[in-house]
Amino acid sequence: MNFTNLFKIALRALGNNKFRGFLTMLGIIIGVASVITMLAIGQGSKQSIQSEISEMGSNMIMIHPGNMERGGVRQEASSMQTLKLADYQSIVDKSSYISACSPSVNSSGQFIYGANNYPSTMYGMSEEYMEIRKIAVKEGDMFTEQDILSSAKVCLVGKTVTDNLFADGENPIGKVIRFNKIPFKIIGTLVPKGYNSMGQDQDNLVLAPYTTVQKRVLAIAYIQSIYASAITEGMTEKATEEITEILRSNHKLKETDEDDFSIRSQEELSSMLTSTTDMMTILLACIAGISLLVGGIGIMNIMYVSVTERTREIGLRMSVGARGIDILAQFLIEAILISITGGLIGVVIGISSSFFVNAVLSWPVYIQPYSVILSFAVCTITGIFFGWYPAKKASELDPIDAIRYE
Amino acid sequence: MEKPIIQLDNIQRDFIVGSETVHALRGVSFSIFPGEFVTIMGSSGSGKSTLLNTLGCLDTPSAGEYYLDGYSVRQMGKNERARLRNNKIGFVFQSYNLLPKTNALENVELPLMYNARVSAKFRKEKALQALNDVGLSDRVYHKSNQMSGGQQQRVAIARALVNDPVLILADEATGNLDTRTSVEILVLFQKLHKAGRTIIFVTHNPEIATYSSRNIVLKDGRIIEDIYNQQIESAQKALDLLPALND
User: Fold this and answer.
1) For chain B, which residues lie within 8 Å of any Cβ of chain A, measuring from their own Cβ?
2) Nearest-CB residue to B78 (from A16, A320, A324)
3) CB contact under 8 A, B86 and A403
4) FRET pair for B205, CA 20 to 30 Å: which of A73, A88, B162, B199?
5) 8 Å CB contact between A38 and A284
6) Any idea which of A192-196, B12-16, B197-201, B232-236 has the lowest mean pLDDT?
7) Are A181 and A111 in contact, with CB atoms under 8 Å apart?
8) What tens digit of pLDDT does each residue of A229-253 get?
C-alpha cells in the first residue's frame, strides 16, 4: 500500500465531511490559539518587567552595609558605617569583573529656588554612576574629576525637580539652587526616565559629587553604598563573589564571621519580580493546555462516531482489498490532518490575537517561538493519540459484518 | 483440461453460537471453470451467504480446501486474503455500497487505490474503461447520490471490473432494483459473460437462473442440485418484451 494513495483516500474522506471536520478542528484551533496567546501575554508582562529592571541599571551590583549586632542589638543596615571609601577604592583596584563602580551617599530634603521649593533626594556619586544606572545628561555638562576632588558645589537635576523649581520654563543651567542652606550651581539636566514598574519617579533626583554630599551635606566619613556594574550579565555572579572576598579581607573578617555588608544584584531583583509573572504564565498555559486536551477529546469523539457511521464504507474498502493497516492508516491520517490543519489555523489565530491584544488593550505581548512549536507539536501528538483508538477499532472490524452493517 | 478458477473440496464451516455449534456448510464441493456464469440459489439459512463469504475470501472454511485461481485460501491470513480480493475478485453487492458524496470515477478507482503497483494515470484509464464497459461514460463525474439505483449498480459493477478479476461475485445484485432495471443489469452481466468473464451470482430469485449457464442450489449447507443450463435465456429479449416506459 503506498502512502500517497492512503493520503488521497483520507483527504477525499475529509473532503466529504468538511463541516464536521471543521467543527472537530475548532477544538484544536481554540486550544492552540489560546496556548499561544496566553503564553504571549505571560511572556510579554515578564519581559516588560525585565526591561524596566534593566532600565534601572546595567548588570548592576548594589553593596550596602549589612545589619549587624552591636551589644546584642540588631542595628538597622542604613545606620551602619562599615562601608568606607577605601572599600570602594579596593573594589576599583582589585576586581576584574566590573566595568564601572561608584560610591553613593544620599540625603533627602527641600530644594529651594527663589520662591519655589520641592522635596527631593541628592545623590552623591562619581561619574561612573551614570553608566551603572543608565542616566544620561540632557543639557549642560557632567561634573569632573576636579569637581570631586574639590568637593565642588555643583549638581545635575532631574526633570521632576526642574519642572517644580523652574515652573515658568526658565533654563535651569547656571542657576543656583539651595539645599540644606548650601548653594549648588546647576551644571546640567538629566534625560527623563519616567516611572518604574513600582511606581517610583525616576526623575525626582539631584546628582552631585559624592565628596560634596559626604563632607558638605552629611558631614560623614563613611559611604552609604557602593554601586558597580559587571562587565556582562553572566559575570554578575563572579563579580559578586569577588567583591565579597575583597570586602571581607578589607574588613578583616574571620572565617566564622558573617558578612558585615550585603550585596544584591539586579539579577536577583529581576528573578524576584518575575516569579509572579512566571507563575501567571504557568497558570495560563495550564488553562490553555486543558482546552487543547478538550480539543483532542473532541477529535477522538468525532473519529469514533465516524468509524461507526462509516462501518459499511470500511467493510467495502476491506472487501475490495484494504488491509487492516490501510484502514488504520486512513483514519489516523484523517485525525492527524484535522489536528495539523487545526494547529496551523490555531497558530495563525494565536499570533494575530496576540497582536490584537497588544493593539487594543496595549498589553505587552511577546510570542516565543518555542510556544508556537510546542503547541503545534502537542496538537499533532494529540491527533495521533486520540485518533489511534478509533482507527484501531476500525481496522479490526470484520469485513463480513461491516459490509452489511445497518 | 483447463484449470478451474474455483475448486472447493468438501468445505465445512461451523459457527459457535453460545454453547451450540451451527453447521452452516456441511461439505460442499464443486469447481468452476473460466467463462462460467453460475447462479447459487437457496432459501435463507441454506448457507449461501456463508458460501459467498468463503468464495469471496472474506471468511475461511473450518475444514476442506478452497483454491482460488490455484491459491489455497484456507491457510491464508487476513492480509493475504485482502490482497487476493484486491487482485482476483470483484464484488457487486445488493445495496451497491458506493462511497457517499463521491463521484463515479473515484468509486470505480477505489480497488486500484489499494494496489500500490498501479499508477494514478493507469488507474484513471482503467476506471474510465470500466465505466465505459457498463455504459456510464457520460456519468463519470456524477456523485453517487445523483444517480438512479440502476446507475449506481452499474458503477458498482464497473468497480468490480476495474481490477480485471478472475471472478466477479454478485450478491443479490438485482435485489434492490425494479423489474426493468433488474433485467438491464442482467443484460450487462450476460454481456460480461459473453466477453469471457467468470461470474458467480448469489440469489434467491429462480428467474435469474434462466439467464446463467449453471445453477447450484443449496439447502441446509449441502448442494442439492447442480445443473448446467442448456438453454440460456437472453436478458436482452426479456428487456425488449417489457412494456416501454411511457414517461
Assistant:
1) 53, 56, 58-59, 78-79, 82-83, 85-87, 91, 93, 97, 99-102, 106, 110-111, 113-116, 159, 163
2) A324
3) no
4) B162
5) yes
6) A192-196
7) no
8) 988 878 888 888 889 888 888 888 8
Q: Is B226 in contact with B30 (CB distance < 8 Å)?
A: yes
Domain-embedded: residue A268: no
> Does B54 or A66 have the greater pLDDT score?
B54
| Neighbouring C-alpha atoms within 13 Å toward the C-beta of A299 | 37
Among A230, A259, A288, which residue terminates a domain? Answer: A259
Asked if A309 has any chain B CB less than 8 Å from its own CB, the reply is no
CB A123 within 8 A of CB A226: no
Closest CA to A177 of A204, A157, A199: A157
pLDDT value of position A226:
92
Residue A79 burial (CB count, 10 A): 10
**In this model, does residue B247 exceed pLDDT 60?**
no
How far is the C-alpha of A214 from the C-alpha of A106, rounded, in Å? 8
| Per-residue pLDDT reduced to its tens digit, B29-45 | 999 999 999 999 998 88
How many domains are there within chain A? 2
- Is residue A30 in a domain? yes
Structural domain including A204 reads 81-259
Q: Which residue has the cell 456510464?
A: B136
* Chain B nearest C-alpha distance from A400 (Å): 6
- Bridge partners of A118, per DSSP, are A111
Q: Which of B165, B64, B204, B88 is nearest to B215 (CA)?
A: B204
End-to-end CA distance of chain B: 52
Residue A153 domain-assigned?
Answer: yes
| pLDDT at residue A31 is higher than 90 | no
Q: What are phi and psi of B75, to 5 degrees?
A: -90, 0
For residue A128, what is its C-alpha cell?
A: 561612573
Q: Are residues A194 and A305 in the same domain?
A: no
Q: Mean pLDDT, chain A, as a whole number?
A: 86
CB contact under 8 A, A323 and B79: yes
Beta bridge partners of A70: A73
d(CA B152, CA B145): 8
How would DSSP label each residue in B131-199? HHHTT-TT-TT-BGGGS-HHHHHHHHHHHHHTT--SEEEEESTTTTS-HHHHHHHHHHHHHHHHTT--E
Query: Please, which pLDDT band fits residue A78 given cuts at 50, 70 and 90?
Result: low
Inter-residue contact A212 to A153 (CB < 8 Å): yes
